[in-house]
């Protein structure tokens, strides 16, 4: 099957399985989708809501329907002419006893046949930070026991429902002196056990237990579990060390995914690990079941280029591959990555300069600055957040780099720490891509800039240390005998800068600096780029040249808010002065709900600003103040968002140290607003109606642009309708598929019907109509030139337009921008009166022809300058198509 024309992201789990997905196939076909884009479908930990915690990379999750269910889904897709793209997770697996590879590593340590599968430092015991208290305390409190794990066929250390297997060589010590025949036979069996033959060993243990019975053995284990010193001794003999979960940040023996100790790094750079982890994936691709792959967190890999090149060789040139990669401003995908593009976060960011009213944004900035009462710049706040990550959340990873670097470079630990810390603080993007001593000239130049920035804050001694670190990272100037150690240091540095950036910016600063929430988005920047429409056009021309087959996203399972909520915030920025007045009024109306705690007001002024901004952005379109049940449901979703927000901000509460008093006060404040102050709820519901309408118009424009600009449009489940979701897990809730599936591509939808706009029918119909056009003219959208178009006249600032042209086919996209001013200035006017003399200036090739307007079926004549009022015909988006005569 050829590359996608469009994709539809479907979240499996949470009620979605293969059979339910089969039921959606006819709808996706009617909508015009060419490829279903599935979240991870391999076996995951019990209760997983997302599937990125894979326990077996070669088993299709039975909870979703297993291999048979997948076969049925593929059959239904193929029958409808649709393809399948799988989201795969090569960077990590679940550090769970449900994962058979990990179980083996826990049981056998480095001797396990999977000992090298995971990124583990075997210079120490395997750390298992899954206890609710320190091990010694758990033993004293009677929470640690010796157990017989009948299911696995092993002796184990028990901690509530978890049974950590004992290394077989320690069985004789545990069972010494036991007068049970079974114990003696187990000890003999364990003495002959070998790593690599654990399946046979476990089978034999299970057989013995069935044959001999276990009552006496269990009694002995229970008796010995009362001996604290004995339990300590048994634990000391194991290849692992059980520890309190809070110790994870101080240092683990394995690479984790971001801060999640339950996800362990996978070493797919090793040939046998790659083969084993991709066995079923490759079989599905080669058999034609799967047409494309989405690579999760590619920056986490030791050598992304090497991995992607190996994957490409394994699947061939015709398989669609995209990578999850957050690109910093000015950054592009490395040219040696054999992929079609990224998952499209940068497309979201590209629309900001085209739709953000900078004057309104500056009004919000001034009000927020007065409210916050501090002079810290965004860069200073980023440094503050990043320093917290370096010294607290990633202290263990940084400490390991300091120790290794000190030894490699002959530096004192404190000097090494200061140099390394400033380099990490100055690093402006996710990572560099040096491997085996090789690094691109672009990455070398980046490291030089990082060094220059870091040295401004260092004394001469630490600056020299920073220079030495950069020299090492570049892979230059050291002997061949040092190369292995150098490569390990470089890999660890590169695998740290990505998580450090993500957690500092997206999962800390974005929840601290809440000036304008539309900017606080994955792949976005808190300091908006200027340049307006021209900057957007330049970004699209670059996109066509560099990754024409990359995904164009607007909502994903990782975005901070749904696309309609973001579009509404852009409308709010246009109405910034009124929002500031509303904020002051709402704050005064609810002043009595504010609590003053020992560490300050709860919520503090910045958090109040975020709460009211979130209320405006996410308020359901149809929610009326009198709908108490609807208000209560929305309030619970808002409370969950606030709980996550204050913990991610890490200012007055934290995931690792929950401040119950503060969080309760904040939640009580919101509950009082929503349940005890009906006048406030009514005021919100009434006052935000114009902003709601402006947001809906904005999102129509966003959607039309996504569907016609360079790239492959990706539709996140439900966002073809209205998507006002909060950050995950709210955005992973199943949408109203029953209502969405009623879509009829032939049913007329009126642009003058307010209900069509507010219910999302207009947006859904537009998606269907433009996807039909894309499907009929795939080469036009895949390869067509991108031609920025200019407007002239009194309302020119309200239009963004561009054309695509390939061969004898052309399409022109015209979309409204800054809808709040349009609604205000156009009040009481017909569309033609509002647009007046505003014209679209057309290139020579597009003049003197008849166009068909896709969304209405109208015919439109064009000359050198076509009137917007004629092109739009009362719509806020127009899509014109024509074939050259």
Major sheet description: 8 strands, parallel
pLDDT below 50 for ≥5 consecutive residues: which ranges? none
Structural class call reads alpha/beta
Radius of gyration: 30 Å
Shape: globular
How far is the first residue's CA from the last residue's CA?
A: 32 Å
- Percent range for β-strand residues: 5-15%
Number of strands: 28
The average pLDDT is 94
Q: How much helix is in the residues?
A: 40-55%
Number of helices: 36
Q: Main sheet: which strands, in order across?
A: 16-15-14-5-2-1-20-17
Name a few traits of the molecule:
alpha/beta, eight-stranded parallel sheet, 36 helices, 885 residues, single chain
What does this structure look like?
The chain has 36 helices and 28 strands. With 885 residues, the chain is an alpha/beta fold. Strand 25 and strand 26 form a beta hairpin. The longest helix is centred in the middle third of the chain and has 30 residues, at 483-512. The chain starts with 6 loop residues before the first strand and ends with a strand. The model has no long low-confidence stretch (mean pLDDT 94).
Task: Describe the structure concisely for a colleague.
This protein has 36 helices and 28 strands.
List the helices and strands and how they pair.
Layout: E1 7-10, H1 18-31, E2 35-38, E3 42-44, E4 54-60, H2 66-79, E5 83-88, E6 92-94, H3 100-108, E7 126-131, H4 135-140, E8 144-149, E9 154-159, E10 162-165, H5 171-175, H6 181-192, H7 198-212, H8 215-224, H9 228-236, E11 240-244, E12 256-257, E13 260-265, H10 271-277, H11 279-286, E14 292-295, H12 304-315, E15 320-323, E16 341-342, H13 345-350, H14 352-355, H15 358-372, H16 378-393, H17 395-409, H18 413-426, H19 441-455, H20 460-473, H21 483-512, H22 532-546, E17 551-552, H23 563-574, H24 576-589, E18 595-597, E19 600-602, H25 605-618, H26 628-649, H27 660-676, H28 678-687, H29 689-708, E20 712-716, H30 737-740, H31 754-758, H32 761-776, H33 778-783, E21 785-792, E22 799-806, E23 809-816, H34 819-825, H35 831-835, E24 839-841, E25 849-853, E26 859-862, E27 865-867, H36 868-872, E28 877-883
Parallel strand pairs: 1-2, 1-20, 2-5, 5-14, 7-11, 14-15, 15-16, 17-20
Antiparallel strand pairs: 3-4, 6-13, 8-9, 9-10, 12-13, 18-19, 21-22, 21-24, 22-23, 23-28, 24-27, 25-26, 25-28
